[in-house]
Amino acid sequence: MTAYVDLMAFQRETEALAQVMGRLGWDQETMMPSGAAAQRAEEMAALEGVLHARRTDPRLGEWLAASEAGDETAGANLREIRRRYERNLRVPARLAAELARVTSRAQGIWAEARRNEDVAAFLPVLEEVVRLRREEGQAIANGGDVYDALLHDYEPGTSSAELTAMFGALRPRLVALRETIKAAPQVPEMQGSFPEEAQLVIANEVARAFGYDFARGRLDKAVHPFSSGSGLDVRITTRTNPTDPFNCIYSTIHEVGHATYEQGIDARHFLTPLGQGASMGVHESQSRIYENQLGRSRAFTGWLYGRMRQVFGDFGVPDEETFHRAVNRVSDGYVRTEADEVQYNLHVLLRFDLEQPLMRGDLQVADLEAAWNDRFRQDFGFALDRPSHGLLQDVHWSVGLFGYFPTYSLGNVYAGCLHKALRDAVPELDGDLARGDTSRAVGWLRENLQRHGGLREPRQTVATAVGFDPSEGPLLDYLEAKFGDLYGL
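Predicted structure:
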């Protein structure tokens, strides 16, 4: 056991340094002065160099060879450390540091280009990011598929072929449901002016309602909402729009799903490879079930309607049912994070289908905007109006997160399975939600999934929680039932 003890002591220090680097990223998105971008890029590169050296330290190989798994937790730690060690050995230190430097710089360039609707200002640095990530993918793949190698960073154990098959089963029923809804009488859009301060009052309240521990976290504003950190320091962001309070409220609930997953992990796993979510797909299952199956349910929106009336006064919606329909309104839109449940996955599939050829070298950065615009028109039936609704919409590619997007739809699939099991386990769920009480729902998720962190492989994590093998069926059944009721289909 001496080798395992030494290995875990070393690993805890590495995990702690990684958390520090994550905090630098959070600061860059929320509070860092704009003039500090160049220095921050150097800081990130320097810290990445230290982390890469630790992650490829020859002693890791020696400790792994000499360690034995005395129990399930030790076995899982050894599995994850070995997986990361073998991956990182294939990536040169020079490349790891350069990626950290360029993506830190690219993030600021993307934000400025987005504000100015200036794709040309972003493309040169995106070209650098793509080149470096292709190089990294080729190194990790070791002769295999470049995109799958990158995908495994976010969803171990899956492949683009498996996801393509799953998404191929999603698309026809989603498109058919959307077309049926479009032919039905439409739900009016909620209109009005909603002050930012009041939106943030509601945001803080729903965060607490869904179990977010502010003693171990905070809520700030950012261009693109996100969650970061783990264990005793988990931070979330949201954004506001004076004409659309749902953007703030549901972005907050979404990020709280991520954050309470991290806060809910068993403290024994903190600062170990198991002390974070099992994968990004499993992580997304938490944010999506919080946001949609719970937060947009008829029961919870009834409670939310009452709170918004108290905070905003009369905002022109006469009753709870009209409000529920407004929250779940299906409408044309450009932005993935603001998309309704029916069309959200179509936005993800667009990105998934573009980034695969981009990483494999079959699509060039110079042609990416045209490819995006053409695909958007094909999928949604209307043209984009500006770059911030298209290629400049998401932060992900600027920071090199290729292989990340499909985990959003995989998370929706997992959420559909979890919701089915949750409804069976907590028959009084709607009564709870109507009082703004999510404690039993969140408690079930914490007990059956969240507390285990990365103990199990991603698909096994969900299968163990729900008692059956995950598939797209429960999600599609839920969507067809919910929106069939809403639109009288």
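Summary: The chain has two domains: 2-144, 160-486.
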